[in-house]
Design brief:
By secondary structure, this protein is mainly α. It is 69% helix and 1% strand. It is elongated, with a radius of gyration of 38 Å.
Amino acid sequence: MTGRPASLHQGLPVSPGLEPGAPADALSDTVESDDDGSDRETDPTDGHRAVARTDLCGTEATNSPTMSDALEYAQQNETEAVVESGMVDDLVRLLDADEEATREEAARVIAELCVDNEDKAVESGAVSKLVANLDYAHDDIREDAATALSRIAGEYAWRVVEAGAIPGLVDNLSHDYNDTQRMSAATLEAVAEEYSREVVDAEAVPELAAILDHRDGQTRLQATRTLQRLGREYPEAVVEAGAVPKMVTNLGHDDESLRVVSAYTLTQTAEEYPKRVVKSGAVPSLAANLNHANEDVRVSSSLALQPLAREYPKQVIKTEAAPKLVGNLGRDHDRTRSVAAWVLEEIATEFPKRVVKAKALPKLVDNLDADHEESRVRAARTLGEIAKAYPRQVVKAGAVPELVASLAHGNETLKSESTFVLGQLSKTQPEHLVEADAVPVLVDHLDYENERVRLQSTYCLIYISKADPQAVVDADGVSELVANLRNRADKLRASTTKTLGEIAKELPMKVDTAGAIPELVQLLSDSHSLTRKNATWALGQLAREYPQRLVSAGAVPKLVFNLDHEHDPTVKQTTFALAGIFEEHPERAVKVGAISKIAANLDHENPTIQNYSEGALDRIAEEFPERVERERDRQTGWL
């Protein structure tokens, strides 16, 4: 049933089409329409509904003789005046009235008063009386009691719960009166903000799920909203109550708000139970909404697809969602674009080719220059996934200049995502980063406060240094790299030593003059194994040009120590570095007792280590043949 008054100023409800203050006998000539579409004659003897009253416009009418002065005053004055009059206590007492019409009018007035003055109702003891009316025989009284409680629960949920309202509200979910069901669900939604566990324990979820296919759209909508609130913490309860298939059905409902709330609730459920959501047929329905005219429908449906695309990307691809998502990348609505990119990112994680074939790259690149920061970030992340498999296509789409600009001018998150994509591209397309003037920008971020940005900038420079070390030198990158050798982050030290080693292969003087050698020598004893390995390798690139500097920095004892304390890759680099030093300073091998340790590796299982050891001993033997010969014999068993 519908047609309840909306404010204190309208008096008792009147039938649709009846002007306020019309004579009572006019009611018999009107009809009301039920929610199921059928017409029902209004009974002129239906108690208080046949009694007209005074409204704010001054229409003369007659009040029921049983109604108190407080009700009459409330009918004729604004809510604030009622509150200031001190009559709220009297109105609350009337919630116990024996006269049904009086009780109903009191419930209506209290419900309206609670729009802005719920604290006054609470202070006057209304909560317990409203709870008591939740099971009153008259439908309108139940509805007004639930309405008032929903407004009180926003600030005083504990009072509503303490008064024992939850069981009565749950019982009313199965009532045959639409508005009672709807307002009970609304109150449960408000209570659930603080007492979701109590609502779930009262078996509200199955009752809410049962009315998701209610004939009244507003009741469906409110039930879904309440389930959305409960589903944040108890998605399992929503699933077990059988709500998911009904919400999937509601994705195609004519009411756009119902589509939106259903999709948001499915989003929460899909985070924990994606398989159940997929099996309920949600993916095709959500995909169908991706090109809906309503932006909120598109956004909410895209959000629901995101966790499903993460776990079941193939199911999403089958619905031809990718082209629709790509289309949404070009829409004017910021949220539509960013969420579309998010879902495409999930698809691209396993099926980047499908995203590329859907012609996403140009639009993703366009979004790197969007005003909306989240759209830029999401576009960068999606490009990062695609770049792992298709770096050349990303470059051809014009991504590099936009990524460099995002690194230079974006926020911290965008900088991080941009360096990640650039890092993927630098592996095979470093020349394009150089052409786009990425190197100075990357060097500028070697001391950026965000560790991930520093690390990924360094990672890019590793590959650029392999292809064009002069570009890093020209950008004053070497001194910045050396400064990071003392950084506390293990991965950053390891990447930095690797980058310096790449530069030292071609331009050792630049690395030496930046003061790298003493810092690299210190890292030979670093606690991080990869850092030790890369530092050893970098020193190996410098050993033949600057052996004396390595000796002066104390490299030889540390390198010799590492010969029998490291795993094969580092042993190989250690032997190579020592061979470079002993080329000019074979006496150092004798001084630190290196000959026996080098000779021990002559039969190493790694042939490269064997070769490096043999070369080092050959050079030492030129100056100290007897010592080397003795160690060789020892290794072969002659001694």
